[in-house]
Automatic annotation (TrEMBL):
GO terms for biological process: DNA-templated transcription initiation. Residues 103-151 form the RNA polymerase sigma factor 70 region 4 type domain. Keywords: Sigma factor, Transcription, Transcription regulation. CDD domains: Sigma70_r4. It comes from the Bacteria. Residues 11-76 form the RNA polymerase sigma-70 region domain. Belongs to the sigma-70 factor family. ECF subfamily. NCBIfam families: sigma70-ECF (TIGR02937). This is RNA polymerase sigma-70 factor, ECF subfamily. Gene3D superfamilies: 1.10.1740.10, Winged helix-like DNA-binding domain superfamily/Winged helix DNA-binding domain (1.10.10.10). One of its GO terms (molecular function) is DNA binding.
Amino acid sequence: MEPAIRAEMTELLPRILRFARSLTRDAAAAEDLVQTAYIKAVERIDQYERGTRLDSWMFRIVQTSWIDEKRREQRRGVVISFEDAREITMPSHGHGGTDRMFLQKALGSLPEEQRAALTLVLFEGYTYREAGGILDIPHGTVMSRVARARTYLARLHDEDGTENDDEDIQRGSS
């Protein structure tokens, strides 16, 4: 592998890890996913087209590795511990001024498809078209997922802690 590509892959690591965390919602699982993706990238470096964006190629490998893992889990069945199940639940309505913690919980409550699109567009700075290429979906679908995610997050943020009907905030159907 060329030293320049190796250096660029190393530079990408924090961004790739952040994307993996947005998919997995678990630091250890994200690290495993990134390791798997980097192994695949090294093994398939001959498939990388010089002069194209290495970051897009790497994000796509992470995304497909995640999809592959989810499919394997579906085939063999997944057992979730009680502690993991509690972490996956909706965030509390009152975020108590801790915006970073609120955002992490709120992002974790988004459907996976919306979380991936939002992460690529808002946090990684990809255009809708680029994110669509990474996720292998039309850019209009990316726009829709990001819009639904933003609406949902805005509603959660605006909550004042009062009781609401479950129909007021429905993940992914706004």
